Amino acid sequence: MKEVKIATWSEVADRTPVGAQVSNVDLVIVRFDDNHSVLYGRCLHRGALMADGSVSGDNLICGLHGWDYLFQTGVSSYNNAEQLAKFSSWLEGDDLCVDQDEIEIWEQSHPQPYDRAAYQGGFQDPMVTRPNRTSA
Ligand code: FES
C-alpha cells in the first residue's frame, strides 16, 4: 500500500464534488456529512470530469448530459450496470488519503485515454479514442 493525500478534509465542502488525480487517474471526492466517497472522476458517458458536476439528493450528476451516480457507491441510479469505480479512502488527521497502489492496479485494466501533455488533451472524448464503446 502507498498512502497518498488527495485533499485537506477541513477544506472539502459538504456535497460539493472535488477533483483529484492520482497517477493518471482522475478522481472525484464527495463529502457527505462526516463520510466520504472517492470515485473514478470521469463520466462513463463521454468522459466529462465528475468534479465539474453537482450533487442532488443521493446522486452525483454529470454536468454535461446529466448521467447520475449514487455518490456513496458510484452505481448509476438510471442504469445499475454503469458504475464509477469506488476506491478506498480514509482520514489521517486532516488528510483525506487513498492507496495509490490500488488506483494504479485499477488503471492497468482501465487505461486512460487522456494525453495530458497535449493541448486540451485532458478533455479528449473517449468515444473518439475508444470507438468500440456503444454509448451515444
Ligand atoms: S459526459 Fe457525462 S452525461 Fe455525457
Concise description?
It contains two helices and ten strands.
Q: Provide the residue-averaged pLDDT.
A: 92
Which radius of gyration do the C-alpha atoms yield?
14 Å
CATH second-level architecture: 3-layer Sandwich
Strand order of the largest sheet: 2-3-4-8
CATH level 4 superfamily: Rieske [2Fe-2S] iron-sulphur domain
Order of helices and strands: EEEEEEEEEEHH
Structure commentary:
This protein is mainly beta. The chain has one domain (3-112): Rieske [2Fe-2S] iron-sulphur domain (Rieske Iron-sulfur Protein), CATH 2.102.10. The chain is built from two helices and ten strands; from the N terminus they run E-E-E-E-E-E-E-E-E-E-H-H. It has helices spanning 100-109, 126-129, and strands spanning 3-8, 18-22, 25-32, 35-40, 54-56, 59-61, 68-70, 86-87, 89-92, 95-99. The strands form three sheets. It has a four-stranded antiparallel sheet with strand order 2-3-4-8. It has a three-stranded antiparallel sheet with strand order 1-10-9. Strand 9 and strand 10 (95-99) form a beta hairpin. It is globular. Mean pLDDT is 92; it is low at 131-136. Bound molecules: FE2/S2 (inorganic) cluster. FE2/S2 (inorganic) cluster binds at residues 43, 45-46, 48, 62, 64-67. The site of FE2/S2 (inorganic) cluster has 9 residues, from loops.
